[in-house]
Backbone:
């Protein structure tokens, strides 16, 4: 590998910095999909790591009802591909 590659100049230093800050690193180049997979994604199209997100929402909001957690997940996973950019910002209620 060239000493001037993207991996050498950017990726490795970024990983090292994030690890210094307490983040964990997992190489998922050979990711396994499904419930027992590497990250728990069903397919490579799954962008959201739902189980981890739900666990973190519960950790940060222990009194939040399950129905509210489901509403958050619905808002985050709603298909916005056919919407205009202006319409996508109006999907989550502010208040």
Residues:
């Amino acid at each position: 590998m060239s000493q001037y590659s993207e991996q050498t100049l950017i990726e490795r230093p970024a990983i090292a910095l994030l690890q210094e800050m307490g983040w964990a690193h997992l190489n998922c180049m050979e990711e396994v999909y499904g419930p027992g997979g590497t990250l728990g994604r069903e397919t490579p199209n799954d962008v959201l790591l739902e189980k981890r997100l739900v666990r973190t929402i519960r950790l940060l909001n222990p009194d939040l009802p399950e129905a509210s957690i489901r509403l958050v997940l619905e808002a985050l996973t709603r298909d916005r591909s056919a919407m205009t950019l202006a319409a996508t910002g109006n999907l989550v209620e502010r208040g």
About this structure: The chain has a mean pLDDT of 86. The two ends are 51 Å apart (CA to CA). The chain has two domains: 1-30, 43-79.
